[in-house]
Amino acid sequence: MLEDQRWAAKIFSSGWQPGSGTLDVVEPATGALLGRTGLADAADVAAASAAAAAAQPAWAAASILERAAVLRRAAGILEQHLAEITEQLIRETGSVPGKAGFELGLALRTLLEAAGLPGLAQGEVLPTAGDRWSFARRIPIGVVGVISPFNSPIVLGLRSVAPALALGNAVLLKPDPRTPIAGGVILARLFEEAGLPEGLLHVLPGGAETGQAVVRAAEVQMISFTGSAATGRQVGELAAAQLKKTHLELGGKNSVLVLPGADLARAASAAAFASFFHQGQVCMSAGRILVPEAQHDEFVELLCAAADRLKAGDPRLADSDLGPLIDARQLARIESIVSDSVADGARIRTGGETAGLFMQPLVLSGLRPEHRAWQAEIFGPVAPVMEYRDLDQAVELVNATEYGLSTAILGDVGTAMRLADRIRSGIVHINEQTIDDEPNVPFGGTGASGNGTRFGGAAANLEAYTETQWLTVRSEIADYPF
Ligand code: NAD
């Protein structure tokens, strides 16, 4: 898949082409150079967008069997090359094998679910006041722009690319410049090998400028963006000025709420997973852990013990539970959030030692709502714990954030169900931690976590990647008074 190097120093735009420059791809665990992709500038994006628009009508007119077959073949190729793709994902993104397996399992299911979409794009026959037939039918959007982040680059690209292609669109994909092989080249190779006709998928690695060019490109009618709230706001503003449809999936400040009487050992294990999995670099990572006053001290001890059992190290080594952070900028940001909070009175209970980009999982207690570690999305292996007085205060604390992505409630199910009714969150898990996804569920957040759009499932994907056309038909030309 990657070994023939046809992609090296190239962008994927009507075949493998030189871009305006190249991007070095560095392994965060070792600093080794993993490869080099092409870099796309605004002119590359404009050319790709025009080529995509030219290729798209024939794809939209292609048989639903042909479109489904491309998606099914891409799934087969992913399975066939799973070992190689897993290795690349581990090295390029610093994912331990368990995280890579979770991501690639989801990616495979995403392709298989998308293979069913061409046959599901059904419309409606509408009642009408006229002497005619009236229909609502689904038509592709045209050219879709996809901008994806570094943390789970394969599945977070595919969850837009696969349904968009399945439903007859062409796609421009801009992966994060730190993960352009996993987030870009691998997707291009999957669809190239699957026989997707040329011009329908363009992979355009680059940074903010390339992303902006994708949003601006004349033929791009929709943007599917996954990334931080700050960038999402900019992308949303730029797209809105051009009246483009925008799906924004942004960050989170997700809570694990431990109920009175919950099994504390299990709750601590769930919270540790929610805060430390993939070094906390998941939009659904828990950045707030709420525990009843009476159980707080015992819980913190259990959470610290769980943190101490984890080891951050090269994700290719069997004893590493956590891999490296993606880069030095992320590490510096995490450290500044922790040190500001400590200066304001929070206490580090364990962890936080660093070596290169590796950081031991850190437990913070003594937090107050105004502390930076309680307010900001940390995107690092940090578990801030706060005690609460009663359930009303707990709900108030959970809701006191601009984000609203994922919430976990641990303990008595009846109490948890009543609280779930009061929590503003796109996702609520009872007796599970905050991080999960399946390609057939409506995934998405509220507030600063996104603009209310959903990924996954036929209904959300049809809504996202098609337009509805009203079509009327009479057997003869109608009579008019003019
Ligand atoms: P980011 O917003 O910095 O980058 C995301 C993507 O946007 C990258 O491809 C980047 O190159 C591009 N980009 C940056 N500036 C741009 C601009 N001005 N115009 C257009 N594109 C631009 O995000 P990050 O910090 O690298 O990723 C982590 C963030 O993503 C976290 O906030 C995380 O919560 C969020 N995330 C959300 C989900 C979700 O499904 N809700 C999933 C994963 C990650």
Automatic annotation (TrEMBL):
<comment type="similarity">
    <text>Belongs to the aldehyde dehydrogenase family.</text>
</comment>
<protein>
    <submittedName>
        <fullName>Benzaldehyde dehydrogenase (NAD)</fullName>
        <ecNumber>1.2.1.28</ecNumber>
    </submittedName>
</protein>
<dbReference type="InterPro" id="IPR016163">
    <property type="entry name" value="Ald_DH_C"/>
</dbReference>
<dbReference type="InterPro" id="IPR016161">
    <property type="entry name" value="Ald_DH/histidinol_DH"/>
</dbReference>
<dbReference type="InterPro" id="IPR015590">
    <property type="entry name" value="Aldehyde_DH_dom"/>
</dbReference>
<feature type="domain" description="Aldehyde dehydrogenase">
    <location>
        <begin position="17"/>
        <end position="470"/>
    </location>
</feature>
<dbReference type="GO" id="GO:0018479">
    <property type="term" value="F:benzaldehyde dehydrogenase (NAD+) activity"/>
</dbReference>
<dbReference type="InterPro" id="IPR016162">
    <property type="entry name" value="Ald_DH_N"/>
</dbReference>
<keyword id="KW-0560">Oxidoreductase</keyword>
<keyword id="KW-0520">NAD</keyword>
<dbReference type="Pfam" id="PF00171">
    <property type="entry name" value="Aldedh"/>
</dbReference>
